[in-house]
Amino acid sequence: MLSVIIVLASIALPGQALPAETPDAPDLDRILAEYNAGIERSEAFIESLWVEQVIIDPQDDGTNKEARAVLKYGRDGRMEREVTKRGVPYMVGEYTLGSLLGPTMLEDQYRIAHDGVEMKEGVLCHRLSVEALVRDADHFDGTLWVSCERPGPVRIIGEVSDPPFPAVRVALDKAFQQGPYGVWLVRRHTGEAEVSLLVRRRGVRHIFYDGYRVVAGPGRAPADSTGATGPDE
């Protein structure tokens, strides 16, 4: 799920475009199949997960409010959040393992086009433009960068296709990196929301994830075929 924990995005400058992989058009079906398979493989691979979450709420006076929590995913398939520092009074949002791994990109849910190959977050990526065919709070319009070498999400910038009331606009900016066992996991979620009740207000939040611990299920193959291992190996 694309979290509706709403945040101002620190939008990076566009990456430097590089030549296409080949003179021919890229095989978008193959790119999407490998990307989706990577996320599904990671979700099946993870038996349990632990990560610290830091939430920064910028204030109008230039100060920040901060809250901390620990997210725990267990074999029962649920994600629990334990607040370790209260400083943001409206910690909202639903977390699933999928919200940490990134969204699957299904062609019956998105209109997707390949916009070239470029560097993003220091990774050579396929740049994909995305338009949601399913208009709800779980889908988005924008841009997805997918790693060319080890298919997985590197960066997502866009807007929720149909924000939940009372939001009228929800911007999102999520950056990912490879964690234990080579699994792609979100490391930062920043974004911005505009809410309209009697007056229109703009909200900002930055969310950081650190210290991932991943336990693989018994007998399950590592998510990264290159043989990357977890933090204790």
User: Kindly state the mean pLDDT as a whole number?
Assistant: 85
State the separation between the terminal residues, measured CA to CA. Answer: 31 Å
Secondary structure: helix percent: under 10%
Beta strand %: over 45%
- Please count the helical segments: 2
Topology, number of strands: 11
- Please give the largest β-sheet: 11 strands, antiparallel
Strand order of the largest sheet: 1-5-6-7-8-9-10-11-2-3-4
What is the element layout, followed by pairings?
Elements (H helix, E strand, L loop, with lengths): L16 E2 L9 H18 E13 L5 E10 L5 E7 L11 H5 L8 E11 L2 E10 L7 E8 L5 E8 L6 E12 L5 E13 L3 E17 L17
Antiparallel strand pairs: 1-5, 2-3, 2-11, 3-4, 5-6, 6-7, 7-8, 8-9, 9-10, 10-11
General description of the model:
The protein is mainly beta. The protein has a domain of 143 residues. The protein contains two helices and eleven strands. Strands 1-5-6-7-8-9-10-11-2-3-4 form an eleven-stranded antiparallel sheet. Strand 6 and strand 7 form a beta hairpin. The longest helix is centred in the first third of the chain and has 18 residues. The two termini are 31 Å apart.
